[in-house]
Amino acid sequence: MPSHLTRQVFRRLLANEPILHRGCLRRQTYSSVAPATALATRSRRQNGLHTVRPSQRRTFFNFNMFRKAKRELKEADMDPGIEKMMELEKMQRMRARLPHPEDVADALRKFFAAKRAQKKPLEDTQAQLALQSINYCIEFQKGRVANEVEYGAAPPILSTKFLLAAAKAMRWGLPTRISDAHIELTHAIHRAMVDANSNSKIALEACCILLSMSGVPEKARELLVQQESAGASLVPLSSTDAEDVSAADDVEEVAEQASSSYSNSAWRYVLRGFALKQDEPEIQRTLAMLTERGLGGGRMVALIMLEFHISRGEVVEIKKWWEQYSQAKVTNRPITISDDQNTGRATACVLQWCLSSSNLEFGHQIVTSVMKTNPPKPVWDAIFVWAAGTGKGVDEIGRMIDVMNRSNDAIPEQTNWRVPDTATINALVEFAISKDDPYMAERFIALGRDRGIEPDAKTYVLQMEYRLSVNDVDGALTAYKNLQAMDLSENEDLPAVNKLVVALCSSKRHDFDTIMNVAADLSDRRARFEPLTVATLSLLHLNRDELHDVIDLLNTHAFHYSSTERSSVRYTLISYCLDPATPTSRSWDAYTIIRNVFDELARDSRTELMTNFFTRERPDMAVHVFNHMRQHSRADTIPTIDTYIAAFMGTARLNDLESLEVVHNQLKLDYNINLNTLLRNALVIAYTACGRPRKALGFWDDIVASREGPSYNSIHIALRACEKSPYGDLKAKEIWEKLRRLNVELDSTMWASYTAALAGNGDVRLAIKVLEEAEAKGELEVDAFVLGSLFAGAPGMVKQADVEAWGMERYPRVWADLVKTGVQEDEAGNRLFGVDRNVTP
User: Fold this and answer.
1) Higher pLDDT, 29 or 275
2) Residue 71 carries which DSSP code?
């Protein structure tokens, strides 16, 4: 290739410009894609390339239309109204202009309406946003009432209808983990309803239930008593309210709710709360209060007490409360399916305890007593499980099912017959799973098929669970395929299918398409992905560089999680970033996704990620992480002194002056940071490491002039700067004289730093003289660290040879110990022994 052409090519490459040639077949393409700018035109003329750009032409066939469309990312999937509430929270945090209260109230109405329609609980993050929004609207309403002349008789911004709907959503949508925000939100709704002279019974119940389930039932009980003593009218439920109650609780309670001014449901939750706390004195006190109010004789109260004493293994009390439960009758209404299910639940609970505690005689007595009255089918199911627990085989249980079928001859109404169904088989399969016996579970399923009972969705779900428990992923996948033909409208398969997705990702034997087929089925149903599933799939996509899929997955599900669930997904992704086996490019991609999706990412985690990029020798990425913290508005995210120190130390390890100056400039603009000795120490270390020791010594002067003053580390750090600085020996002598004048205690490490500072500027003889005089006066005992520091401070091979000759002659044993630490060579060619001379702020 001719030399002039070579120069032209390299010039074009360095200027990041296209290489044009008359014979280039792609010249027209480049010319039509890259617009002609003045800079490009000038560059071409300077390089002697007088090219004429062809005119734009429109062809009949536009081949761009056949290209694959650019993929667009999914927007974050949030519940209606959440975005406006998040805007309010952000504006309040930033002390900026707040959105109009009417818009916030409208967002609240949409949000609670959606929660009622979805029949899903509020997560703690959503409860916190709703609490802030309701308080904001209430404050606005109070201001409007106070200025009635200006606003007139305007309707309340939060209507009683909305407050009732919000209370119902809180009443029936109990979250897995109840936070303070949930409780405060129900209190705010209750107070607003009381102020509006509205029916606050539902809101009161919500408060009591949430308090009881969150571990403070005494506060719930106090609230109920206060409401009574204050004479507040608890208006009986209207027909609409009773209809809402019946959708979530048993019919017995509906009757009590509609006829009583006291909430049996709230009192029951108080009792259950004390039972969960194992607080027996308070349980007895609450029972007495229930009896005073005529609410202590119900079957649900007996069931709570029965379960409490079973958890404590108290035989006498278990027998007592079982008898009370058995004798309690449902009055004023016919027995319903719900009553039979509760009876079966109580029977199964007691018989299971009899099996686990070896109280077989008491169990036989229960079975004998309930069999005298031809019990309902749920009780029969519990008896079948009892028989399996006492050693009966599958064939014997089959004969017992025949006995149940023959008992139907005494029942005239065919609708009341006890017929074995999938619930019967599923109960037996669950028992086999509890015994870790998959073979028995398979035999029970076969027993059902022999009697014409085909597996339902729950059966296949149980099959998936016990196959996954023994790591039979292929068997679980087969059960999943059978599950596809079932009715899954209740989504009872979601936990098992989520476990299957995680198992498929963890097993290295299944291909990507198999995993995606299962995940796509959940996605098509708009079903819930568990946090572990989302985290596992995210790692799978990250390892395949499918960033769009990761973002879409997180945007679809992460904003519906609680703070605990979001933190579990976030922790998995952060661990992936910090894993040394993760390539730097993927680590950065994962961080970018975390930053965009998890805005609540705490300062500690961000600092850890920043340090990770310093460790990977990518200070540019680390500085980006720091700047993202700096630009944030959350008080728990913006950098602190420790964050700045971590950034300065990272730049010092990499000797990266550009990154250091970027962080330092941010510090100059940060009015939240008050410089202290630790921060100035870090600045001295960083600028010394980055080849600016003279500037570093300027911070030493600031330390000396500050009220806090220097620490021992500050002295070591300053002497290190003197060691690297031109004429630093003069500054080192000045520092040393002041230390001696102030009678500062000087140990061997301090002598090592001082002599290294003297030697660093070439005055090795003076350094040696200082050591010899100090040893002669008994002020110093020369050790390997002192000799190693002196040797490291000596510049050049000649000076180091002088130190080596002196050390080997005067301290041969100590020098031999120093040699054992090993020798390395730095970038300048100087030798360094393996003594640790690193300094910290």
Assistant:
1) 275
2) P
Q: Does the residue 664 lie in any domain?
A: no
pLDDT digits 0-9 by tens, 506-524? 888 888 999 999 998 888 8
Beta bridge partners of 823: 833
pLDDT single digits (tens) 208-266: 888 888 888 888 888 888 877 765 444 443 433 433 433 334 333 443 444 344 467 78
> Are 343 and 470 within one domain?
yes
Show Cβ contacts of residue 367 under 8 Å, excluding neighbours closer than 6 positions. Answer: 351, 383, 386
Sign of the Cα torsion 100, 101, 102, 105 reads positive
Do residues 107 and 24 both lie within one domain? Answer: no
List residues bridging with 832 in a β-sheet: 824
Look at the chain and report how many structural domains it folds into: 2
Which amino acid is present at 696?
A
Report how far residue 800's alpha carbon sits from residue 759's, in angstroms, rounded to the nearest whole number.
10
| Spatial distance between the Cα atoms of 499 and 26, rounded to a whole number of angstroms | 53
Q: List, for residues 564-595, the tens digit of each pLDDT value.
A: 999 999 999 999 999 999 999 999 999 999 99
For the record, the structure tokens of 516 come out as 């995606």
HEC assignment per residue over 380-401: HHHHHHHHHHCCCCHHHHHHHH
Q: Which domain holds residue 20?
A: 3-66
* CA distance readout (Å), 350 to 305, 386, 788, 791: 12, 10, 76, 80
310 and 250 in a single domain? The answer is yes
Q: Is 626 left (phi over 0), alpha (psi -120 to 50) or beta?
A: alpha
Structure tokens at 155: 């309707």
Torsions phi, psi for 833 (to 5 deg): -80, 165
Residue 618 has pLDDT above 70, yes or no: yes
Examine the domain organization and report whether 185 and 269 are in the same domain: yes
Mean pLDDT to the nearest integer, 60-87: 71
140-157 mean pLDDT: 70
In a shared domain, residues 350 and 489: yes
To which H or E segment does residue 825 belong?
strand 823-825
- Token pair for 152: 């007139």
Return the CATH number at 429: 1.25.40
Give yes or no for a contact between 787 and 819, defined as CB atoms under 8 angstroms apart. Answer: no
User: Is 251 within 8 Å of 333 (Cβ atoms)?
Assistant: yes
Report the amino acid identity of residue 540.
L
| Domain assignment of residue 313, yes or no | yes
